[in-house]
Amino acid sequence: MELALPLALIFVLISVCSTTSAHQNPEFAKAIEEHYLPTEQINVPNSLLTYIVRVGKSDEGGDSLRSKDLLAWYRSLLPSSLESDQNQRRVIFSYRNVMDGFAVELTPEEAEALEEKEEVVSVRPERTYSLHTTHTPTFLGLQQGLGLWRNSDFGKGIIIGLLDTGITPDHPSFSDEGMPLPPAKWNGLCEFSGRRTCNNKLIGARNFVKNSNSSLPVDSFGHGTHTASTAAGRFVQGANVFGNANGTAVGMAPDAHLAMYKVCDLSGCLESAILAGMDTAIEDGVDVLSLSLGGPSFPFFDDSIALGAFRAIQKGIFVSCSAGNSGPDYATLSNEAPWILTVGASTIDRRILATAKLGNGQLFIGESIFQPHNFTPTLLPLVYAGANGNSSSSTFCAPGSLKNVDVTGKVVLCEVGGFVRSVDKGQEVKNAGGIAMILMNSVIGDFNPFAEVHVLPATHVSYRAGLAIKSYINSTSTPTATILFGGTAIGSLFAPAVTSFSSRGPSFASPGILKPDIIGPGQNILAAWPVSLDNNVPSFNIISGTSMSCPHLAGIAALLKNSHPDWSPAAIKSAIVTSANTVNLGGKSILDQRLLPADVFATGAGHVNPLKANDPGLVYDLQPNDYIPYLCGLNYTDKEIGLILNQNVECSEVKTIPEAQLNYPSFSIQLGSTPQFYTRTLTNVGPTNVTYFSEMDPPLGVGISISPAEITFTEVKQKVTYTVGFIPGDVKNRGNHTFSQGSISWVSGKYSVTIPVAAVYL
């Protein structure tokens, strides 16, 4: 499992460690492409770069221009040197929903000339973003014929759009048996044809990757197929990988419609394609957007995903995005905008057990998907690849590093790290003659090993276990070990726990907004895959990442949108956040990779609870224009805010608010020596004539006051505002903490509407 990334922008897909090397193998991609239609190569001159060009409104009425006319206007802005028909084709995408502008291939000199045009607001090179199940529905409490699945009709009639690597349309997870026709509002297209095409389940599929080996939205990577089936896959019996995690695979909203917008390939996700995908999805009429991709923090006016997401929520579209896989360090988030649901990753209570047994009788439980039934339980010679002064590359079992190390017929202890994928470590051990591998986690991964498809008998154990195994090797001249495979085990009381890789807050772009918002299942998730890894069909794979947690929440949002069609995107988010679980299955606080209580910058509000989210009692609602005073409070210029809202804004005419004053379902306070007071407004979405009482769990060294202390709601959709005061206490009570956390709850007989509080000490 690799968390140290060798490139600034690669696929943020922790599954690179939990799949075989097949998904990055050119032969794998070629086999999938040949499964569909002949490919088409699009060549781009190497001297040209793609630029994102933002323009002001057209005098001819930008909103009313048809796409053809809009493209003609954009082309008219190009430098006179580009007037030929061939050069006019350099406009790759024109945008009408996510922004006023277009993507165009230019030389740096041409870009400089274009920026001098009066109509042009900005010109800059595009960025490359990175790509950040059988059991999870049961783990989340979703059951056929009961609760949220029954109330939401399995998400029927809701359209989930995904921006990803494409999709495998003929996988049974996307069968349309019993599915209704798409809603009348659907305006999308399907670029598949022939024997494998769209249907009433997969109602749209578009490809925006211009340099792809195929013009089709086919998934040659696996990521998009996996996320799509996680969000809304149909019921498929007998799903497993190498016989493990066997059961019925199903997504969160199995009767929702799907639309795939291919914006990524093996080289990453180009910004121009992401903008085009979001622009088209909004035009097509999706209800929910799921983006398991992201980049580093940018101001919201310069963050394409934030811009597209704001235009989406203006249309009532809910947006779920992955938080990123750069944990466990703080301030490593992607997708921080408050109008986005930012999703971190948790474990589930299923493990695929592989136990390292040492010659001294010690047992260390790890995980592995590949579990050969004929592997010997007899103890074998054990060797540490980094022993006896071997190079650091040997420590990590890097390719070619074990040529001069005697591992023949032995179990080899390797360490995670060195920019080497876990399965490649196993391949090196196998190539050098090793019998099996024990993979020792990194110190930052600690107690958070992964189940992976290895090429030889192996187990991935914790960092602490690895230290104990090293100590044993050093204690004897004849160390021995073997691996005992235990198959699938369900019921870990430590679940859910925050994964080590899940990115942490606080938000860099807006520290006064608590992020991530929520955590959901993201480790060792089984879902659909383009090709079989074990010669069984239908094909599934188990992979990990916030890329996996994001579509879980997108599917849950689809269920809630069906169950409550009048709820805004902010109301859906509030319902998810205020109903979250803060304890694991054992009834203890949710833990992190160190087996210590996870803090609020790792969990957000906690772990998603779909059943409670369907009936939250109260919500903290927001409309798109409610963000204007907040954005002015970020000290953005009128022009920058106008880019976000797609309308003219004068902050001098607006009552600016601090970040913490936004009606958000959490607090993130930068607390100095003076008290701070804010308001929140609750909207009743539950029964009438109910009285709620305030309860507080203050952060260390902070006092909380709430007025009024009780609220009675007599009408549905009634709104009531309360005031919260945060009063600094004795600094001695803070100890050596730089921040602390607490919560505020409104409690009635049935409901407990809770928001988390983070207090960062200045």
TrEMBL record:
Source species: Vigna mungo (Black gram)
One GO MF term: serine-type endopeptidase activity
Subtilisin-like protease fibronectin type-III domain segment(s): 661-758
Domain Inhibitor I9, residue spans: 50-132
SUPFAM superfamilies: PA domain, Subtilisin-like
Role, per record: Required for arbuscular mycorrhiza (AM) development during AM symbiosis with AM fungi (e.g. Glomeromycota intraradices).
GO CC terms in record: apoplast
Residue ranges of domain PA in the record: 381-469
Residue intervals passing through the bilayer: none
Domain of life: Eukaryota
A Pfam family annotated for this UniProt entry: Peptidase_S8
Active site location: 164 (charge relay system), 223 (charge relay system), 547 (charge relay system)
Residue span, Peptidase S8/S53 domain: 155-583
One biological process term in Gene Ontology: proteolysis
Protein name listed in UniProt: Uncharacterized protein
Main location class: secreted
Keyword Secreted on entry: yes
Signal peptide positions (record): 1-22
Entry similarity comment: Belongs to the peptidase S8 family.
Localization (cell): Secreted, Extracellular space, Apoplast
Keyword vocabulary terms for this entry: Apoplast, Glycoprotein, Hydrolase, Protease, Secreted, Serine protease, Signal
The keyword Chloroplast is assigned to this record: no
